[in-house]
Structure formats: C-alpha cells, structure tokens
Amino acid sequence: MTDQTPTLLLASSSPFRRQLLDKLKLDFIHQSPDIDESRHEDESPTALVMRLAREKALTLADQHPDTLIIGSDQVAVIGDQVLGKPGDRDTAIRQLSAASGQRVSFLTGLCLLNTATGRSQVACDPFHVQFRTLKPAQIERYVDTEQPLNCAGSFKSEGLGIVLFKALEGRDPNTLVGLPLIVLTEFLAAEGIQLPI
C-alpha cells in the first residue's frame, strides 16, 4: 500500500458496476465517458471489449491527473454473433430467443489506467451461461417484468434473469454483471493497493 492512495474513478454510468465496485470498500468517484462503441471491421469480440475498456479510461484521463481510472465494457457472444445492449423490447426478445437453449459467452474487458504514470493494464474476462430452452411467452414475460434494455444479452443475472439459466461457468460471478472484481483486485495490487485496506 502506498502512503497516498490515488483517486479511483469508475469510467461508467452503470449503476450495476458502481454496486459491484462498492464491494471492495474503496472510495471512488464515477463519470460517464463519451466514446463511439462501434465494432471495427474484422475486430474480434475479445479485442472489441478490451479496446473499448481502454478507450473509456483514456477519454477521461486528461480531466483526472494522478488518478486510477477503471474502464469496462461487455458483449454477449452466441457463436460468431455479438449481442450488445438491446435498447428496446423487440431487440431484447430477439436476443433472448436466440439465446434459448444455447451456451452464451459474456466477454468483459477491463482496463486500469494510472494517469500519473501512463501505465494501463488491460484484460478480458470470459463468463459462460447455458440458457434453458425458453418459450416465447416466458421471454416476453421476463422482458416486460424486468426491462433489461440496458444490459448486454437482455437479462439481469443479479435479478430475475437467473431463472433463464441452466448453468453458469466462470472465474468470477461479478464478471457476468459487468465488472471483473478478481482481475481488478490483481490490477490494483500491481499499483500498490492491497485489499482489504
């Protein structure tokens, strides 16, 4: 642990990521970065989430000297198809219909940028979900009940979304919600912040 703990900034508007970061019992601020989240041509899903996580941190760097900035981004992948946040009811229903009976991979990119040194640590943490075979009426009831329109893959695993699943597989259940805390703890340790503090 360093004598002076730098400011910690979560580069996200997500209330889910803020709730996850609260688990570490660290003081932090948050700010929403404004970046283009479009996928580049021939960009793999892993490269996409790592690039966006880093860009989210970098876009706020000039405003926050001597700060550790956390950037994170997530996509859901079924086969070669990348699913982002649905944004509307019809898209959410389509995404969950495509996921029914399938194994879906959730890839979460994480970046920790030290604006004092310019050092950035970047990783992608995968988490896999085996969906139950879902009937159209089940999908519609779920979407109408929980309104998961701002969630990659169209569900909230921390809520009613858990009933859609047959099995979960991954290193860190926090990754599925959108912030890989195990990897983040490792990144913070590399910056001299040993948890718990």
Produce the secondary structure layout.
Blueprint: E1 7-11, H1 15-22, E2 29-31, H2 45-58, E3 67-78, E4 81-83, H3 89-99, E5 103-114, E6 120-131, H4 136-146, E7 165-170, H5 173-177, H6 181-190
Parallel strand pairs: 1-2, 1-3
Antiparallel strand pairs: 3-4, 3-5, 5-6, 6-7
Give an overview of the whole structure:
This protein has 197 residues and is α/β, with parallel strands linked by helices. It has one domain (7-190): Maf protein. It is built from 6 helices and 7 strands; from the N terminus they run βαβαββαββαβαα. The protein has helices at 15-22, 45-58, 89-99, 136-146, 173-177, 181-190; strands spanning 7-11, 29-31, 67-78, 81-83, 103-114, 120-131, 165-170. Strands 1, 2, 3, 4, 5, 6 and 7 form a 7-stranded mixed sheet that branches. The longest helix has 14 residues, at 45-58. The mean pLDDT is 93.
CATH class value: Alpha Beta
Shape: elongated
Number of strands: 7
Count of helical stretches: 6
H/E element string?
EHEHEEHEEHEHH
Distance between the termini: 8 Å
Helix content: 25-40%
- Strand count, sense and closure of the main sheet? 7 strands, mixed
Strand content: 25-35%
Mean residue pLDDT: 93
What would you say the CATH architecture is?
Alpha-Beta Complex
**Structural class, please?**
alpha/beta
The CATH topology corresponds to Maf protein
What radius of gyration results from the CA coordinates?
Answer: 17 Å
Uncertain parts: none
Total number of distinct structural domains: 1
